[in-house]
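Field log, afternoon session.

UNIT: design team B
ACTIVITY: writing a sequence onto a fixed backbone
BACKBONE:
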């Protein structure tokens, strides 16, 4: 069977029945060992089925130390292309399921390039898989109510490495498990499922949990998982049975352990993947300690950053109506932040500290209804299930379209093009094609189609129709003349007969040769008309080509050269052909005369900066423009060599977040660069320089400066062809204008990336403290070298500390990266926050930047995010901070959709998952 770029894994119903009911485990279990060669049963008793009968993708075998589970000895991977790769599983409609996918990289491609790709549930984005450790299993889970008889899990959009999958599991729930009033519009992505007081780091799952939910141990060691634990936190356990009453509650083994705050408080902080957003959360309590006659355990939930509302008091014995009995207060409609901090605190009339057994948190994921033409396309495909092209799963258009069609870019797209040329189609032209209202192009040529041409008036946007080289019969329908947008109609080499429609628009390019019995409206043979039409079309195309080439040639400017006496308006001499960047622009650098710059700077009177390349002076031109004049040192070999590169780059790069280059001067052995003047100096001066006391910047200003700088770098990386690597990002190269908006400066060290190359080899340059260690060792420059430097800048914005210090980071640490990493990974972010911020910041916003900064300064470039991803996180942090400020100032009715600062209320689900409100009724368990 031919393997297409995107292939549909179709699990036959009889195969699923075998998997589901031949096992000793619960009905509805499907466990696919992706890439496995044979079926097997693991140590838990779960039966794994090989997917080797499905011929798509490629298989890689893994050898990972200490990994003994058979299902992780192999994986299935796919090309890094613009296709999606889908597994489709049969389900029972109106039944709830858990679907779980796992990913163990294991360096299967021997490239040590950690993959990053997207996973979707049909048309709904589910998760972005970011591999950060080759030997760690990444797990994602989704709870859903099946609305159709199948569900598809698709991999696509790889930005690094290749998409791959290790296992795919389906677990059918029973009855009303995880029922919510929102389940028809939302999935629930599992963010946390915690077993407190666990006796080991191993999770509790099947067979202890008959539905194979994975309850993670609170002893599990992973970044920012249950940190900031309060002193006095101790574990408790019992061997007695715990009444969990229903099988949708945590299993008994989970409820037999707990943590107790012996000092009166239980406090934790954990990251919630996918948040901020709307979610579902339940906490599970069971009194498993033996209480004395006078013992009282009463406590309440406190959210450190929330308004000081009184929280309902929990009394487990009273609420659960008995000892060793589960009590489960929870929220089906709430808003949670990215970093959740929570405390359980005993009340004044309680002599025992709080006790917690387990917790679940899920995020609502808005279901995408998918392609508007989805049902029509699926019906079309159902006629050809044995054909290779019909085996692509998931939604026809989302998240990426099938290989043989194109779609509009709308959130709910329409199919705009069908490309089914030479697919061995037989029978009549499928009637479904006549119902695609957005269809623009239809290519069915080179098949074995018979019958007549249908009425395409249901496709009013059709511009191009290719039906040539088939066996179509009958007349050409007059309804084609009613397609106002039709421009090309190809019907040659069929068996059509009758007369050509007289009302077909004259501007339609047609070809109907090879139809012996087809006549023009006047009764003449169509062959002559075809020759004339074809000749005319070719002539028009020929003339258009000549005209296009002529005007393109006129637009191209010949290379201009500056004469020996540099004149305004000329460009810098070049000793080599223009680079790709040069050839795309017609704009030249302005040549200033030395006398002009002497006058503007009053003989270089006011020095405003200096560096390794020379001195910068303030100036003012005759037209009133203020300028910064950088005079390169005459004895700087490096400066002379880079001068041409600097002018070439800066004269062609324009972005609001890059310092504007105004021109240059090269006279009497002097090399000078002229920029716009930035009135508020450098970011460095405002963080820990002379401007700190007078012009200190608050947290929201710092975030906006980071956003501006990231936009500038993103333009260099993604907006220039070839891309540009700055190579010397630092706080002194981020300048601030009158309005404190940031612009990136100093491209003297910039390096053009080679198009298509993974790196640029170069002599290592940069500034100590900001220099990418991988670049320093390998001398191979990539855009991730800039990302490392930007991560250092983010840490400086948080802390107000310089990148390198002999005194500020302790006796054994001189580097801000090492110092900040120790604090952040231990949960002590307060230990690095700049005291001058005076608590005027939202801690969730601060955490978001801190953790993204740590990702930026990872040791290996492939583990770092792109600058675009960093920019997105900064924007999210700005949103969180502004919402928090709005609440403190009391000037917004609904500004806190994403924050724990929000007013607490119960109600129905708002239109989007970003508008769910917190429920405060913790004392009253909601129905499940």
């Amino acid at each position: 069977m031919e393997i297409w770029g995107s292939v549909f894994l179709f699990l036959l119903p009889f195969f699923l029945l075998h998997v589901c009911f031949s096992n000793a485990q619960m009905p509805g279990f499907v466990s696919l060992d992706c890439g496995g060669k044979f079926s097997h049963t693991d140590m838990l008793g779960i039966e794994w089925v090989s997917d080797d009968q499905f011929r798509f993708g490629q298989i890689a075998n893994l050898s990972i130390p200490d990994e003994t589970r058979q299902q992780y000895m192999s994986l299935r991977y796919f090309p890094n292309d613009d296709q999606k790769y889908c597994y489709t599983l049969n389900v029972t409609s109106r039944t709830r399921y858990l679907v779980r996918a796992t990913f163990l990289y294991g360096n299967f491609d021997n490239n040590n390039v950690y993959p990053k790709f997207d996973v979707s549930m049909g048309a709904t984005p589910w998760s972005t898989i970011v591999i950060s450790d080759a030997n760690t299993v990444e797990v994602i889970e989704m709870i859903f109510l099946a609305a159709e008889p199948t569900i598809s899990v698709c991999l696509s959009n790889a930005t690094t490495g290749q998409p791959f999958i290790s296992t795919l599991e389906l677990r059918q729930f029973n009855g009303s498990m995880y029922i919510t009033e929102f389940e028809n519009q939302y999935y629930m992505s599992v963010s946390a499922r915690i077993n407190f007081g666990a006796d080991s780091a191993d999770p509790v799952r099947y067979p202890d949990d008959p539905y194979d939910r994975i309850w993670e141990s609170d002893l599990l060691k992973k970044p920012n998982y249950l940190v900031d634990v309060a002193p006095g936190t101790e574990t408790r356990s019992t061997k007695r049975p715990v009444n969990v009453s229903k099988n949708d509650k945590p299993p008994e083994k989970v409820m037999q352990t707990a943590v107790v705050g012996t000092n009166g408080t239980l406090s934790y902080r954990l990251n919630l993947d996918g948040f901020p957003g709307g979610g579902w959360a339940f906490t599970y309590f069971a009194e498993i300690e033996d209480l004395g006659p006078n013992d009282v355990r009463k406590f309440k939930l406190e959210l450190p950053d929330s308004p000081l509302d009184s929280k309902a008091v929990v009394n487990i014995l009273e609420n659960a109506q008995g000892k060793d009995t589960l009590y489960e207060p929870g929220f089906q409609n709430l808003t949670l932040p990215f970093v959740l901090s929570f405390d359980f605190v005993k009340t004044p009339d309680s002599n025992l500290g709080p006790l917690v057994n387990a917790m679940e948190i899920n995020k609502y994921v808005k279901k995408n209804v998918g392609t508007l033409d989805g049902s029509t396309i699926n019906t079309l495909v159902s006629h050809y299930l044995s054909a290779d092209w019909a085996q692509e799963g998931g939604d026809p258009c989302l998240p990426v379209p099938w290989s043989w069609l194109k779609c509009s870019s709308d959130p709910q797209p329409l199919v705009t093009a069908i490309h089914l040329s030479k697919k061995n189609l037989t029978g009549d032209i499928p009637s479904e094609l006549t119902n695609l209202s957005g269809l623009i192009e239809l290519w069915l040529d080179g098949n074995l189609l018979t019958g007549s041409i249908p009425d395409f008036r249901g496709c009013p946007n059709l511009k191009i129709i290719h039906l040539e080289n088939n066996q179509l019969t009958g007349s050409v329908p007059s309804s084609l003349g009613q397609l106002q947008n039709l421009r090309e109609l190809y019907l040659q080499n069929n068996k059509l007969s009758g007369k050509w429609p007289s009302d077909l628009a004259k501007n339609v390019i047609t070809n109907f040769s090879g139809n012996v019995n087809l006549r023009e409206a006047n009764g003449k043979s169509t062959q002559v008309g075809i020759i004339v039409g074809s000749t005319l079309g070719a002539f028009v195309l020929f003339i258009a080509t000549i005209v296009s080439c002529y005007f393109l040639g006129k637009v191209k400017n010949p290379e201009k050269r500056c004469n020996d006496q540099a004149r305004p308006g000329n460009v810098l001499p070049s000793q080599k052909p223009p680079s790709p960047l040069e050839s795309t622009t017609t704009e030249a650098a302005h040549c200033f005369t030395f006398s002009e710059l002497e006058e503007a700077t009053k003989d270089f009177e006011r020095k405003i900066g200096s560096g390794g390349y020379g001195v910068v002076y303030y100036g003012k031109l005759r037209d009133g423009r203020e300028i910064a004049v950088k005079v390169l040192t005459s004895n700087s070999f490096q400066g002379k060599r880079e001068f041409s590169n600097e002018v070439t780059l800066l004269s062609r790069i324009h972005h609001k977040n890059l310092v504007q280059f105004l021109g240059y001067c090269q006279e009497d052995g002097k090399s000078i660069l002229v920029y716009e003047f930035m009135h508020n100096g450098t970011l460095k001066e405002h963080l820990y320089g002379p401007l700190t006391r007078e012009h200190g910047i608050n947290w929201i200003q710092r975030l906006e400066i980071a956003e501006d700088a990231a936009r500038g770098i993103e333009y260099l990386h993604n907006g220039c062809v070839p891309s540009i690597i700055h190579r010397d990002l630092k706080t002194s190269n981020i300048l601030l204008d009158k309005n404190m908006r940031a612009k990136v400066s100093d491209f003297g060290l910039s390096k053009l990336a080679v198009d298509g190359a993974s790196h640029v080899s170069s002599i290592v340059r940069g500034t100590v403290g900001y220099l990418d260690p991988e670049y320093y060792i390998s001398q191979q420059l990539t855009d991730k070298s800039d990302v490392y430097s930007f991560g250092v800048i983010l840490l400086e914005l948080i802390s107000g500390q310089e990148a390198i210090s002999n005194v500020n980071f302790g006796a054994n640490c001189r580097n801000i990266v090492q110092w900040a990493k120790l604090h952040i990974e231990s949960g002590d972010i307060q230990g690095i926050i700049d005291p001058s911020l005076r608590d005027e910041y939202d801690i969730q916003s601060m955490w978001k930047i801190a953790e993204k900064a740590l990702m930026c300064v990872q040791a290996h470039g492939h583990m770092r995010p792109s600058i675009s991803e960093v920019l997105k996180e900064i924007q999210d942090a700005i949103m969180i901070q502004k919402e928090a400020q709005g609440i403190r100032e009391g000037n917004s009715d609904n500004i806190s959709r994403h924050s724990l600062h929000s007013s607490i209320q119960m109600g129905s689900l708002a239109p989007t998952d970003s508008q769910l409100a917190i429920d405060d009724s913790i004392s009253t368990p909601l129905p499940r």
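LOG NOTE: The domain at 8-185 is CATH 2.60.120.260 (Jelly Rolls).
NEXT ACTIVITY: expression trials, pending approval
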